[in-house]
Specification:
331 residues, mainly alpha, two-stranded antiparallel ribbon, 14 helices, 71% helix, flat
Length: 331
């Protein structure tokens, strides 16, 4: 007769069977489950984001690419396949190159002063000021304001006849400027709108990065005789360079997709869509909107514009990254 488990006497005198060691199959199953949980669970946690991104991001992007190869209009049930015909027409259109030039011009006029001003404001906010919370909250107020409200207000400020800017210029002895009629003047006016709205937002991002810089570094620079401005450009900027790269790329992406500011600056309607009577401030998004909704709903051609914009944004963002990385390696 075989005995499956030995009995031992417990505290009450009763005998209780001793547990035998686990089976090898059970241990292997637990180890397999542990490995699967360790390797697969992170992917399950991030899977909802990628599922939503694939549904609302990748699929529309791929479908837009498919539409761009057709003569696709909402006014017709037939969608003739054109291949790269829309792209050839696009690249031969002088209005497209005009819109691209206007977009790049406004981008440079808005982004460079905006980031420099944000860097200086963030540096000032690191000083011991009274009411620091008030000043930091004030930096975010322009970003909270609606884009439409900002564009409408600044359009009034840059008005030709009753604008506050022209009134100040006349008070200083200069003449009135028709800000909408010229390319340079309209680009400056639109760039001021963009810079005013986003400078405070970028300043807070820079401020958060500056607060992570060790204080010992500033103390060492102070002992070496460095002024506050020297500390800013020789200590702070190198230490927060990854944040600067982030803000440059994000500002570039936003600047290349600018729409509401030039559209409302033109007063809305056809003049706003074309960026003025001579297309002097028509951007790429206005050019896309014009062909997608104002010219027979030519969604095929508008999709080609959208994909061209996407490629331009990727190329310029990559050039910005490589340029800033080159500066970092040289320093």
């Amino acid at each position: 007769m075989t005995i499956a488990a030995k009995s031992t006497a417990g505290p009450t005198g009763r005998s209780s069977p001793t547990r035998s060691p686990g089976r090898p199959e059970g241990r292997r199953f637990q180890q397999l489950r542990y490995r699967l949980d360790l390797k697969a669970s992170p992917y399950l946690y991030i899977a909802p984001f990628f599922a939503l991104f694939a549904t609302f991001g990748l699929f529309p992007l791929a479908y837009t690419a498919w539409v761009s190869t057709h003569d696709w209009s909402l006014l017709s049930d037939e969608h003739v396949f054109l291949g790269l015909g829309n792209y050839r027409t696009l690249l031969s259109d002088p209005y497209f190159w005009n819109a691209l030039g206007n977009t790049l011009s406004i981008l440079l006029l808005a982004t460079v002063p905006q980031l420099l001003a944000a860097l200086l404001l963030a540096h000032l906010l690191t000083l011991r000021l009274r009411g620091q919370t008030f000043w930091r909250m004030g930096m975010l107020l322009p970003n909270v304001a609606s884009v439409v409200a900002v564009a409408v207000i600044f359009s009034q400020l840059f008005g030709r006849d009753f604008g506050l800017v022209n009134w100040v210029l006349e008070s200083l002895g200069a003449g009135r400027i028709d800000w909408q009629s010229g390319s340079a003047t309209s680009h400056i006016a639109i760039a001021v709108m963009v810079a005013w709205k986003w400078t405070g937002y970028n300043a807070l991002i820079f401020l958060a990065a500056m607060q992570a810089v060790p204080r010992e570094v500033y103390e060492a620079a102070h002992l070496d005789g460095a002024s506050r401005m020297q500390q800013l450009f020789h200590v702070t900027v190198p230490m927060i360079r990854p944040t600067i790269v982030f803000t440059v790329i994000v500002s570039t992406i936003y600047g290349l997709q600018i729409f509401a500011e030039p559209q409302l600056f033109g007063g809305g309607g056809p003049n706003g869509v074309t960026g003025g009577a001579s297309r002097q401030f028509q951007t790429l998004t206005l050019y896309l909107y014009e062909h997608g909704f104002n010219r027979g709903f030519a969604f095929g051609y508008a999709s080609a514009v959208a994909w061209t914009m996407f490629l331009v944004i990727v190329i310029i963002a990559l050039l910005n990254y490589l340029f800033l990385r080159r500066i970092r390696s040289d320093s």
